[in-house]
Specification:
The protein is mainly α. It folds into two domains: about 1-40, no CATH class; about 45-125. Helix content is about 70%, strand content about 0%. The protein is built from four helices and no strands. α2 packs antiparallel against α3. It is elongated, with a radius of gyration of 20 Å. It starts with a helix and ends with a helix.
């Protein structure tokens, strides 16, 4: 139990460092620093909601790929269970958990896109534009 808590604490510390890095990177790209150093913006992102939009799109794509791979692996485990009820039950449970995770990700994606489009006025298509600009979308 203590080992699991240490692992969780370590992961949370790393996530905090990652988000801190992301915050300062975004602040630098958007020109929110007090230094005279300027940086070119190769991504074309002009504001924070657009950054969040892109981040959500790429994260959803990554989660989708991982979910498909996990479904394939769990399916093979189910097929190769060979009549062992425990292995088949574990594989069935993994498939169910993956499908529940996919549903949660889809609901989160829809909610975030709804907020970005309707409340923060981000010009994007609802099903993702993956880097296209609003002028390319005709918005």
């Amino acid at each position: 139990m203590k080992k699991a808590l240490r692992l969780i604490r370590s992961l949370l510390n790393r996530m905090n460092l990652f988000f801190l890095f992301c915050f300062f990177s975004v602040a630098t790209v958007f020109g929110e620093t007090s230094s005279d150093f300027t940086m070119k913006n190769p991504s074309g992102i002009k504001d924070f909601p657009t950054f969040v939009n892109r981040l959500i799109e790429y994260a959803t794509a990554l989660v989708s790929v991982v979910a498909v791979l996990y479904l394939i692996i769990s399916g093979f485990q189910y097929i190769l269970a060979g009549g062992d009820q425990k292995k088949a039950a574990a594989a069935r449970s993994a498939i169910q958990n993956t499908l529940i995770g996919v549903v949660v990700v889809v609901i989160a994606y829809v909610l975030v896109k709804f907020v970005l489009i309707n409340f923060l006025d981000v010009k994007t298509s609802f099903f993702g534009d993956f880097g296209t600009t609003s002028s390319e979308l005709g918005l």
